[in-house]
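User: Predict the structure for this protein chain, please.
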Amino acid sequence: MNPMQEKNLEVRRAYNANLGNSVVKALETNGFKARYVPTAEEAVKAVLELVPEGSSVGVPGASTIRELGLFEILGSRGCRIVQHWDPSLAPEDRPGRWEEENMSDVFLTSSNGLTLDGMLVNIDGTGNRVAAMAWNRNRIIFVVGINKVSRDVEASLQRIRDVATPLNAISKDIDLPCAKTGYCVNCKVPQRFCRATLVLERAPFGRDVHVIVVGENLGY
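Assistant: Here is the predicted structure, written as C-alpha cells:
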C-alpha cells in the first residue's frame, strides 16, 4: 500500500466513524438501542454480547450475517440456527421455516437501508422478513454496513432498487431485468423481488431492538 492509499484509508475510516456515530444518535432518538463499531470483527463481538448461549437464532435472507461468518460462531456456542436458505429444505417446507425463523429467541438480520435521521428501510419479496421486523416478541438485531446509509427514505428506497436488488439477483442467479440493466426498471416479471416495503420510523412498541452500525461495506 502506497502512502496515498494509506492516507485515503485513514480518511475513509474517520469519515465512516463520523457518519456512523451520527446515525447512531439518530437511531437512539427514535428509540432503537444502537452502537457504532468500526470493523466487521467488532460487529461479531457486538452480536455475541446480545445473543444468549443456547438460544434459537432466526436468520432470514441476509447476506451480511453470512458474510460475517456468524453461523459457525453461534453454533459453537450451542445456538440453534433457523434459516430457510438450507439447501436440503424442500420448497413446500419453506413457509413453516419462515414462521420458525420469526418466532426464534433472537431474530438476526440486516437492513436494506438506513437513513440519516435513524429510520430502517426494507423491501421484501415474500414478506416474512419485514413481518418479523415489524412485530414479534423476540429480540431483534440489525447489523448494517455503512454502505447502506442514505440521506432519507426516498434515497434509501432508490438505492435498494438500483443497487441492492440487482446485486441480490446476481448473487442468487435469478433472471431479473435489473440484474441485466444494473438499475431498477419497475419490472412486472413473476419473480420480481420488490413486493413489500417497511419503514421503521421508530422502534416498535414492546420490542427489544438493537442496531449495530458497522464502519465497513457489508452485504448489498
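The chain has one domain: 3-214.
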